[in-house]
Amino acid sequence: ARRGRIRGRATRVDQLPVRRPALATVGWRTLQIVVVLLAAVPMIASWPSPAGLVSLVFNSTAEGAHALPDDWRARNHAAAEERYAYEFTLEGVPREPWALLLASVRQRAEVSVNGHALDTDAFGTTTPNYRSGLRPLFYLLPSEFLVVGANQLRILLVAAPGRGYLSQPLLGPQAALVPLARLQWHWRGLSLLVIVIAMSAIGAIMLVVWLQRRHEAVYGLYALGMLAWAGHDLEFVISRPWLPDRYWDALSWSLLGT
Question: Rounded distance, CA 123 to CA 138, Å?
Answer without folding.
Answer: 7
